[in-house]
């Protein structure tokens, strides 16, 4: 944001008492804080299997977890259930928050774990693939990804395909 959304005046950086520099409108005396956009990422399991997906836009060989943005007026828990239903057509339960991550400074990723008793998955057109992987075998996750961190938190002895 370069201009005030209330009066149109160009914003300046102002040093606040907490030591941060924030965008400020001198005309309106209003501070504009950069607010991260909330998103969810979820590890869905079915017994000893975990659901992994590949986006149609990925050019690398790794797989990931289902993730998506939280819509305005929607809770993170509801977004988790919606994203899973939209992307693979299954219902989940026991949705539990694990932790949060900051991704690229402006995305607040809220990590969840969830279970399902459903086996059949139907990938949406956003996905190149979606399948169940055995948790006792090495997983094709990017070692530095948030998906890998989420799975490692749940399964500390998890191995990755090298």
Structural description of this entry:
There is one protein chain. The model has no long low-confidence stretch (mean pLDDT 95). The chain has 2 domains: 1-34, Ubiquitin Ligase Nedd4, Chain: W (Single Sheet), CATH 2.20.70; 37-154, Alpha-Beta Complex (Nucleoside Triphosphate Pyrophosphohydrolase), CATH 3.90.79. Strand 2 (21-25) and strand 3 form a beta hairpin. The protein is mainly beta. It has helices spanning 76-88, 146-154, and strands at 12-15, 21-25, 30-32, 37-46, 49-55, 66-69, 93-103, 107-115, 127-134.
Task: Provide key terms for this protein.
Nucleoside Triphosphate Pyrophosphohydrolase; six-stranded mixed sheet; mainly beta; 2 domains; 9 strands; 162 residues; Ubiquitin Ligase Nedd4, Chain: W
Sheet/helix structural class? mainly beta
Segments where pLDDT lies below 50 for 5+ residues? none
Rg, alpha carbons? 20 Å
Q: What CATH first level of the largest domain would be assigned?
A: Alpha Beta
Question: Biggest sheet, in brief?
Answer: 6 strands, mixed
* Average pLDDT taken over every residue: 95
By CATH's scheme, which homologous superfamily of the largest domain applies? Nucleoside Triphosphate Pyrophosphohydrolase
Number of domains: 2
Helical fraction equals: 10-25%
The ordered H/E elements are EEEEEEHEEEH
Count of separate DSSP helical elements: 2
Approximate strand percentage: 35-45%
């Amino acid at each position: 944001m370069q201009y005030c959304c209330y009066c149109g005046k160009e914003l300046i950086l102002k040093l606040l008492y907490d030591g941060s520099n924030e965008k400020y409108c001198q005309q309106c005396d209003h501070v504009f804080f950069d607010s991260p956009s909330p998103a969810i990422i979820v590890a869905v399991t079915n017994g000893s299997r975990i659901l992994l997906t590949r986006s149609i836009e990925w050019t690398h060989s790794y797989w990931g977890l289902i993730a998506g943005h939280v819509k305005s007026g929607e809770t993170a828990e509801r977004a988790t259930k919606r994203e899973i239903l939209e992307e693979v057509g299954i219902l989940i339960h026991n949705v539990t928050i694990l932790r949060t991550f900051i991704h690229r400074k402006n995305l607040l990723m809220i990590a969840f774990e969830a279970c399902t008793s459903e086996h059949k998955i139907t990938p949406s057109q956003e996905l190149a693939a979606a399948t169940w992987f055995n948790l006792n075998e090495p997983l094709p996750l990017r070692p530095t990804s948030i998906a890998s961190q989420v799975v490692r938190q749940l399964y500390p002895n998890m191995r990755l395909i090298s």
